[in-house]
Design a protein that fits this description.
99 residues; alpha+beta; 3 helices; 4 strands; 35% helix; globular
């Protein structure tokens, strides 16, 4: 798994947030939180997963690396972060298409 350079989050950037980032980088189990990723398959713009789901063998064996764009404490928060990412991307690029 790879973390984006600029992570969107609704978690206060403190010890808990840094620990969550460390756990993601290590691929280790941690408290329940949700992540927004670039599409893992050939369709869609963004996808939301519970982090521990991505630790399952199916996702670990994928050829493409999973890129995490946002971290949230709740699924609702992850949806809001996904909307923020799409709005920011649309403002910058003028179209909703990833390179």
């Amino acid at each position: 798994m790879k973390l984006a350079d600029n992570i969107y989050t609704d978690i206060e950037k403190n010890k808990v947030f840094r620990r969550a980032l460390d756990r993601i980088a290590e691929g280790k189990k941690y408290m329940s939180f949700y992540v927004v990723t670039l599409p893992l398959f050939s369709y869609g713009l963004l996808e939301i997963y519970e982090f521990n789901e991505l630790r399952q063998p199916y996702y670990r064996k994928m050829d493409d690396e999973i890129t995490i764009l946002a971290i949230s404490k709740s699924k609702t928060g992850a949806k809001e972060l996904a909307m923020n990412i799409l709005e920011d991307h649309l403002d910058q690029e003028g179209v909703l298409q990833w390179p």
